[in-house]
Design goal:
Elements: H1 3-8, H2 22-28, H3 33-41, E1 44-45, H4 47-52, H5 83-93, E2 108-109, H6 112-125, E3 130-137, E4 149-159, E5 164-168, H7 193-201, E6 210-211, H8 219-233, E7 243-244, H9 258-272, H10 278-287, H11 289-292, E8 294-295
Parallel strand pairs: 1-2, 4-6
Antiparallel strand pairs: 3-4, 4-5, 7-8
Helix pairs in contact: 2-6, 3-6, 7-8, 7-9
Amino acid sequence: MNEDIVKRFLEFGTYNYPGLYQEKLKTELPDDVREIGLLVRQNFIHRTTLAAGNVGTNADLKFGDMTQVPWWRQPEDDVLVTAAAMFAELYRRDERGFVADRKPEDKLVLTCRFVAIAMASILKSKGIPARVRAGNASYFEMGELGNVSTDHWINQYWSEQDDRWITIDVDGSLSSTDGYDPYDMPEGRFDFPADAWLDIRAGKVDPQHFHFAAGNRGAIVVVWSLFYDFHSLMNSEVIYLHHGSRFGVLSEFDDLTSADTEKIDDLARLMQRPDENWGELVKIWESDEDFRLLSGALL
């Protein structure tokens, strides 16, 4: 592995920068990745858990008693969009910060993107190269939706001992019953969007297998994940409300030309092996507005 690439993931970006909490994260939190992950997960409530209450994966109250959360508490995904904002709010609600016994009413109500960003921020603060990855996961119980692969965000960190990126799923670590190790996930367990897109294009998988939390299904879900994953690799974990200015617009997706889809193919092929193709990915980041510029409410 190119040492310069690994060092790149020690750098902070806009979303994962811990702000003035960097020293506290470095010195006050445990050094073991599993211990860090458990502690992070114990301070977050997923929006679906809050909505469902004390049932399903929370029947044993592992995420806390949802009846203790104020009735007016809403998902905070659109409010606490950066690591610095998350950490500030954690310390505001309980000045001890990351603690295993945080009261349910004092936890943050955030989804997988935010757990992954918090985890990356902590690991980077401790001098461990880390990155956020976006894609889809088929190892969650999705009820009436059946066997779908739903949008999901995870992490990878660089292990000097193993000389490899280790894939971890902190957000899903306490809720999946699939039998995998969430702190060293086997290859192929997570649906990285580059592979998923190219499999769809080759007719190897039904695009309807891929699901987005807002209710969307199909190839565009994978394009969204590919865009998120590309930006995450470039240290810019954009929020859910942002998509590509060209390829991520739902109303225009069916009108993409063959040249458009081939351009997405090219990016996907590079992202199948991002470290080997790092230079080419950076060139796209620095020069291609289709994959760099965002589309959103004010963009």
